[in-house]
Amino acid sequence: MNIQSVRYPQYAHLYKSIVVTSHGFLTVFANDKALKAIDFTDTHPLANENKISQLAAKQLSEYIANKRDQFDLPLDPDGTDFQKQVWQALLDISFGSTASYLDIAVVVGNKNACRAVGAANGKNPIPIIIPCHRIIGKNGKLTGYACGLERKTYLLSLESKAGSLK
């Protein structure tokens, strides 16, 4: 069955690899140079792999199996300069840690940009690898997640159970 990505129909022409999780399928989208997007889906799309999508799928499978806490992949997310700045700041949140929207707003140089940071976080096309799931409210509570709060809880739980793999 070839199901198009719900979030990323513009990447249908790219190479795809699939990772099976207990919370659905991860479809990994890559071009010849870099990873472009990851999408959680409830149905298994048809794979059309290349080296980058295969490597991303392998690293994501290791992460889900608690055998990896860092990723080593070329990334090329599409977004505005501000979104890319936020996503770069997310990459600095270490495995098993969390940060607030305010923390990221401070990192990007505007402590009043919490809502803009939240919007950029929600537009992150490469979840898990660019760890937008690690963003929580200032009060320590879970906030929205484009892939669903159940999946956010799953990812945070996965990281808290794994501890440091180093």
Automatic annotation (TrEMBL):
EC number: 2.1.1.63
Enzyme class: transferase
Sequence ranges assigned to domain Methylguanine DNA methyltransferase ribonuclease-like in this UniProt record: 15-77
The name this protein goes by in its record: Methylated-DNA--protein-cysteine methyltransferase
Active site: C132
SUPFAM superfamilies, A to Z: Methylated DNA-protein cysteine methyltransferase domain, Methylated DNA-protein cysteine methyltransferase, C-terminal domain
Family membership: Belongs to the MGMT family.
Note from the entry: This enzyme catalyzes only one turnover and therefore is not strictly catalytic. According to one definition, an enzyme is a biocatalyst that acts repeatedly and over many reaction cycles.
Residue span(s) of domain Methylated-DNA-[protein]-cysteine S-methyltransferase DNA binding: 81-160
UniProt KW keywords: Cytoplasm, DNA damage, DNA repair, Methyltransferase, Transferase
Catalytic activity of the protein: a 4-O-methyl-thymidine in DNA + L-cysteinyl-[protein] = a thymidine in DNA + S-methyl-L-cysteinyl-[protein]; a 6-O-methyl-2'-deoxyguanosine in DNA + L-cysteinyl-[protein] = S-methyl-L-cysteinyl-[protein] + a 2'-deoxyguanosine in DNA
GO cellular component, as recorded: cytoplasm
